[in-house]
Amino acid sequence: MTQQAENTKTPKLSALKRYRRMQRQVRVLFRKTKEKTATLAAKMSSKPEAESWDGADGEETVMTSGTSQAEGHANGKANGQKDFYEKFSPILNQVKKVREAGVYLYCRPIESGQDTEVTIHGQKMVMVGSNNYLGLTSDPRVKEAAIKAIERFGSGCTGSPFLNGTLELHEELEARLAKFMKKPMALLFSTGMQANLGTLSAIVGRGDVAFSDRINHASIVDGLRLSFGKTVKFHHNDMEDLERLLKRHQNADGRLIVVDGVYSMEGDLAPLPDIVKLAKSYHAKVMVDDAHAAGVFGAHGRGTPEHFGVEDDVDILMYTFSKSFASIGGVVAGPVEVIEYLRHASREWIFSASMPPASVAGVLAALDIVEKEDWRRERLWTITKRMQQEYKRMGFNIGASQSPIISIFVWEDFKAYKMAKRLMEEGVFVNPVVSPAAPPGKALLRTSYTATHTDEQMDFVLDKFKKVGKELGVI
Ligand SMILES: Cc1ncc(COP(=O)(O)O)c(C=O)c1O
User: Fold this and answer.
1) Residue 219 Cβ contacting ligand 1 at under 6 Å
2) In whole angstroms, what is the distance from residue 442 CA to residue 413 CA?
3) In this predicted model, what pLDDT tens digit does every residue of 120-139 receive, in sequence order?
4) CA 221, 225, 228, 232 torsion-angle sign
5) Sign of the C-alpha dihedral, residues 317, 320, 326, 329?
6) Is any ligand 1 atom within 6 A of the Cβ of residue 130?
7) What is the mean pLDDT of residues 395-408?
8) CA 293, 299, 302: angle at the middle one, nearest 5?
9) What is the predicted pLDDT for the residue at 7?
10) What percent of the chain has pLDDT over 90?
11) Looking at 249, 292, 418, 453, which residue is catalytic?
12) Ligand 1 center to residue 328 CA distance, Å?
């Protein structure tokens, strides 16, 4: 019976009843189509006989013979659809290849503390692959502060800072950091990743546009993805492109430019003076992720805004504690209205447990050291300049590095793995960075330095780079 005939036969049916009947008809039609598709899929399967059975949820599932019910459930194949796990294959195959070639270097378990030298499988090696810029992970004052905090406050906060997870220690650190970062207020997050996710997702609202450097850190990319606003990406450090986009979005409700102060893979800097100038011209706010600059850049270690003399023009400043501050956690500092808003709107802040006492106390102790011991920054820069010069002199391409992150370009992914493996055998820990973390064809070895590295350790690293670089035809 057609819908029209049905309707004329029952003219007094209420609109709601007609709607429900239509819904039922659509459901029947959907089930029949599904059955037909399943039969067709079974026929098309290379195995001739297909058996069907009722899955736990009552939905019909078709399996080709030779597949057990358990396997059918496990691999999720149903009605000729793709296996749920099938999409993992490209990455898993790649991992398998790298493992089989014996050059898989991720997640190497370190048996010692994170210091300028580490031990892996009983072998000592010089560490030039960490973000321990000031060498504070093993500082007795930082360790002692963390131990004392555990003794006084216990091992964890068991709750969100919004509810039971705020200790006096958190408030003390927020106040100290707001002062250090030269902003009215600061807010702690449990990681740097959460700081960016929780800030950007909350402050970039519907109708706003965020202008994000194309190679910004993943936490910025994902924070913007979670927001309700629009994100436009400008070419890396390309101010003409940024201006073009700012012009195009002049009518947006609000504009926020977001950049890394130091780019974590190539170690170059965002041109903050140009960025703040454009921000002023186009009425945009500026947020800087200074994960790799805190403690390192600026006469007092306050980061890239201090280094460039534009502290008052950067609206929101973010640090992580997983690098110079030798711990874990993150902080966002800015105007009172931003921080107060985050306290009541940031899901990553409200719905996640706060930094554990040991980490907070460790950061407080690290901050004391950052404020007092300028020699660490000075030493780090001496090492950095020397290593940049030496690598270049040997013929390595170190790209645009302007920081203690010095990347050695080897271009091909496999060569990066091979070279990192050979260096490890020779006693040097470095990280291979390949696509997609680096652009395709721009594979590199990421090296980074620590204020407490000795000259002898640096001589050793340079010797090994020369030896392995020649062996693999990189220089
Ligand atoms: C630029 C940048 N932002 C944010 C983060 C995230 O920080 P965390 O490791 O503390 O989560 C990192 C860490 O690698 C980073 O390099």
Assistant:
1) yes
2) 8
3) 999 999 999 999 999 999 99
4) positive
5) positive
6) no
7) 96
8) 40
9) 42
10) 80
11) 292
12) 10
Residue 319 has pLDDT above 80, yes or no: yes
CA 123 to chain centre: 30
Known catalytic residue: 217? no
State mean pLDDT over 380-387. Answer: 98
Tokens at 9, concatenated = 């036969």
Edge to edge, what strands does the sheet with 330-334 contain? 185-189, 330-334, 316-320, 285-289, 255-260, 209-213, 230-234
Query: Domains in the chain, ordered, with CATH?
Result: 99-128+374-471 (3.90.1150.10), 140-372 (3.40.640.10)
Q: What is the pTM of this model?
A: 0.84
300 is catalytic: no
Average pLDDT, the chain: 88
Tell me how far the alpha carbon of residue 218 lies from the centroid of ligand 1, in angstroms: 8
236 is catalytic: no
Distance from the alpha carbon of residue 326 to the mean position of ligand 1, in angstroms: 13
Catalytic residue among 264, 359, 401, 407: 264
Take atom 10 of ligand 1 and give the residue whose Cα is closest.
192
Least confident of 66-75, 95-104, 258-267, 456-465: 66-75
In 3D space, the residue among 317, 190, 213 whose CA is nearest the CA of residue 268 turns out to be: 213
Q: How far is the CA of 262 from the centre of ligand 1 (A)?
A: 11
**Which residues fall within 8 angstroms of residue 97, CB to CB, at 6 or more apart?**
none
Please determine, for residue 196, whether its predicted confidence score (pLDDT) is greater than 60. yes
